[in-house]
Write a structure and sequence with these properties.
Blueprint (H helix, E strand, L loop, with lengths): L6 E5 L4 H14 L4 E4 L8 H4 L5 E2 L2 E2 L2 H19 L4 E6 L2 E3 L3 H5 L11 E3 L9 E12 L4 E6 L8 E5 H8 L9 H6 L5 H6 L2 E4 L3 E3 L1 H4 L14 H17 L1 H10 L3 E5 L3
Parallel strand pairs: 1-2, 1-5, 7-11
Antiparallel strand pairs: 3-4, 5-10, 6-12, 7-10, 8-9, 8-13, 9-11
Length: 266
């Protein structure tokens, strides 16, 4: 099978162990890929981090999370500069199903006008209940489906982006007010998520590996919270944004336009 979707891998220079692990996996699957040097939040120009705010809609954004956003921004530019209509980005601590090769060797599974498709399952050791729309397409010999996401499911370990989607994201208002995974996959706090009409592939074809990662260097979520008081108010902010979509989500359930689906790592 001929690969028709290019693959990029985000990797920090100081993590050759991760690069070796994912390189061995991709090479074993026969997949061509390109390394994209990640922005190091602990060792970079402050200007690179200014793509994101330090304090956003749902609380403080760590240097690592801001660097993660800057790294994905580099991918968007790379995709636009390429000759490809679509591209897939992988973070270097991701595990891949054997079916991943099938995914990158054809375009038929990508619904018309798709801009962004999430390919991973966040929190792989737990099941997730997601509000999803009807099946839009099937992938990998009808073993997986692409559906519209109507609820938050964060993580940016693996996703497909179209050139059009990359252009929209590149030109989006900056600095970003939420971490990159919320920006792309959390409609409660991100209008960009709405504009890109985020979709998801289920069951997932990839997931982050604790064994490979050995702790996150460009983590979107685990920022230091100096006091219980700060944690409490951050939780309140998140609950406020989440609740704003409840009436719309309830309507989708009532009219049958979406349903709650339990997603697990296959």
């Amino acid at each position: 099978m001929k690969q028709v979707i290019p693959v990029w891998v985000i990797n920090l220079t100081k993590r050759p162990d991760r690069l070796k692990a994912i390189a061995q996996r991709l090479d074993a699957l026969g997949i061509e890929w390109t390394r994209l040097e990640a922005v190091d939040g602990a060792n970079c120009d402050e200007g690179e981090l200014n793509i994101s705010k330090q304090y956003g809609k749902i609380g403080e954004i760590s240097s690592g999370a801001r660097a993660c956003s800057a790294s994905h921004h580099k991918f968007w530019n790379e995709l636009i500069s390429s000759n490809s209509k679509f591209g897939i980005i992988l973070e270097d601590d991701v595990e891949l199903s054997d079916d991943f090769k099938n995914l990158v060797c054809n375009l038929s599974w990508i619904p018309k006008d798709s801009k962004l498709i999430k390919l991973e399952k966040a929190a792989p050791d737990k099941s997730s209940k997601l509000l999803l729309g009807p099946k839009l397409s099937c992938a990998v010999n009808n073993t997986r489906q692409v559906r519209k996401m109507y609820s938050r499911h964060c993580g940016t370990a693996a996703y497909l982006l179209s050139r059009e989607g990359a252009e929209i994201a590149i030109n989006w208002q900056k600095p970003f007010s939420v971490p990159i995974d919320h920006l792309l996959f959390n409609e409660t706090v991100s209008k960009l998520c709405t504009v890109l009409n985020s979709l998801i592939l289920i069951p997932p074809i990839s997931w982050q590996s604790h064994g490979v990662g050995q702790g996150s260097n460009i983590n979107n979520e685990k920022i230091f919270i100096s006091s219980k008081r700060k944690y409490f108010f951050r939780s309140l902010r998140r609950a406020y944004y989440e609740s704003r979509l409840w009436p719309y989500q309830l309507l989708l359930l009532i009219i049958g336009a979406a349903k709650i689906i339990t997603v697990t790592k296959k």
